[in-house]
Amino acid sequence: MSGFLNRLWALLRKETRQMLRERSSMAVGLLLPAALILLFGYGLSFDVDHAPVAVVLDERSPDTLSLVAGLQGSPYLAPVQVQDMDAAVRLMREGKVGGIVHVPVDFSRSRAAGQAQVQLILNGVDANTARTLEGYIGGALASQLQGELDRQGTPSAGGGVSVVQRMWFNEASTSTWYLVPGLIVLVMTLIGAFLTSLLVAREWERGTLEALFVTPVRPTELVLAKLLPYLGIGVFNLAICLLTARYLFHVPMRGSLAAIIISALLYLMVSLLMGLFISAATRNQFQASQVALLTSFMPAMMLSGFVFDVRNMPMVVQVISQLLPATHFMGLIKSLFLTGDNWTLFVHKSLVLVAYALVLFAATRHLLRKRLR
After folding, report:
1. Pairwise CA distance, residues 325 & 15, whole Å
2. 120: left (phi > 0), else alpha (psi -120 to 50), else beta?
3. pLDDT tens figures, 171-196
4. CA-CA distances (angstroms) from residue 53 to 7, 72, 129, 134, 316?
5. Residue 188 near residue 238 (C-beta atoms within 8 A)
6. Burial 232-244 (b: 16+ CB within 10 A, else e)
7. pTM for the structure as a whole
8. In angstroms, rounded to a whole number, what is the distance separating the alpha carbons of residues 69 and 150?
9. Residues 35/294, Cβ–Cβ less than 8 Å
10. Angle at CA of residue 110, ends 107 and 114, nearest 5°
């Protein structure tokens, strides 16, 4: 028994020291669970808080102002009064509001006759949020109207007002229309960051990169040579994604196909360069794969607006999400698929992706140049 304990203690000390020397294993064992808890804890949220809603009042009267007060009193809504429907529609197309409450010009007279209607238009790009927002707005209006009737001592269900609801950009309220464009972002992230994250690290481990040090090859040539073959794989997968979205899942492509392809290629380039940068910085395939998981795929899935509205997350997480290239591409491709061409948004997001690509290219080239000297 004494010999068994001595041998076990010796082996235990050896394995413990080896584990402490393996910094990558320690990082995965200690940091990965914490990162996952934070990502899922802050990213997974079906709640809708302070959702922006445009309010259009064609008639300004005590009845309509009281109705708007009911929306302002809800903690789940952030009503914004606009001058007309054109301004409200513009805000919805830009993704700045999730719905439009339109009170018609004859609201007071129709309400006195017990036939008043309020139009509710919802942004169906995010079908889950739209349905939740519909319930919040309907509940706030009903509560306000019923409170008025109770104060008057003449309770009546609905207060003579009905809400006419319409869903824009996703008339069937189909979650597939909302999810499939987001899946394209995840696919581009996966094939981009993960494939190239192992390239340089693999050569460092095998010792084959040193063979390039004695050749006239330059860092720019090395980056492009490693990038372009995987760009071809990405283009092939992009074509499969677009064909599947259109003909298998029947997701409408209301925007320009050229705009969709250009933005997707820009994001693909960013993903490839991100993986190549990680590979050049880590020099280890295991570390590179873990870093790529934590910095590209997981944030793209949880914090980019793929399933959960970024505006419902804490402000700190919202700021972090805006630093992710996936967040910018996610909003752009969903808009191009479902709402149509918004050239202001397209130019803005494309310039952001170009800036990311240039910074990552320069950073990767700098890392390889330092290693070549």
Report:
1. 40
2. beta
3. 766 778 888 898 899 989 988 888 88
4. 70, 10, 12, 11, 23
5. yes
6. eebeebbeebbee
7. 0.75
8. 16
9. yes
10. 125
